[in-house]
Amino acid sequence: MPISPRLTSYLQDFANRLPNGTSSTAYTSILAALNGSPLLLQEAELAALDKFAKFDFIVTPTGKAAAYDSSGGGTILIAVDSAGNLTQQGMGTFVLVLGHEVKHANRTETYEATRKSFNDGVANLAGKPGMQEYTRLLLTSQSDSAYDEAVAHITGWNDLVSYVRHSNPSATLEQVKNEALGYSQHFLKPGTTIPVSD
């Protein structure tokens, strides 16, 4: 599936702000991730419809590969160095993290609704006389946040599997794991194997 004109325009705007434009590894890596993982491209196309306004970058020598900022229309932030190169090493890990953040973009409305519910609940209790019990609100907020992170993380893993198996349909779980060693322990117990479908 080719990248849509709408998503292409976001990517071109991103490249135009990078020090080396379309030659920057941050730009070429996003293209490689999207073209290499059909599931990630599907999620990004959905997000590009109305969930985020742009891709942008943050210049940082270390840290995670990407982030999502829901303010200002929504922005997928890519971590780069001063030359516009990715700070994240390894395409597999980049695909996983980018997929994670794109999923956050696709869940913006849900996140904003749960945050509003928490804030409204706190304001309601705070307006009442005497001491109030906030535990239920805090537990619900923690649970909602944990669920949001879990869904995003699982989506990133699935995007990674899609990336690896797009170029190698018979890739084993071990091969998938080796593409994102820093994250594979979040999903797999040592010695886990899964059959390869025909």
Give structural attributes:
198 residues, mainly alpha, three-stranded mixed sheet, 8 helices, 59% helix, 8% strand, globular
Description:
With 198 residues, the chain is mainly α. The protein has a domain at 5-87. 59% of the residues lie in helices and 8% in strands. The protein has helices at residues 5-17, 25-36, 38-50, 91-106, 108-126, 135-167, 173-178, 181-184, and strands at 54-59, 66-69, 75-80. The chain has a 3-stranded mixed beta sheet. The two termini are 22 Å apart. The model has no long low-confidence stretch (mean pLDDT 85).
Brief write-up:
The protein is mainly alpha-helical and 198 residues long. It is 59% helix and 8% strand. It has a domain at 5-87.
Distance between the termini: 22 Å
Helicity range of the residues?
55-70%
The oligomeric state of the chains shown is single chain
Total DSSP E strands = 3
Which consecutive residue ranges, at least 5 long each, have pLDDT under 50? none
> What proportion of the residues form beta strands (DSSP E)?
5-15%
- Name the strands of the widest sheet in spatial order: 1-3-2
What structural class should be given to the helix and strand makeup? mainly alpha
Mean pLDDT: 85
Report the principal-axis shape: globular
Could you give the topology of this structure?
Blueprint: H1 5-17, H2 25-36, H3 38-50, E1 54-59, E2 66-69, E3 75-80, H4 91-106, H5 108-126, H6 135-167, H7 173-178, H8 181-184
Parallel strand pairs: 1-3
Antiparallel strand pairs: 2-3
Helix pairs in contact: 2-3, 2-4, 3-4, 4-6, 5-6
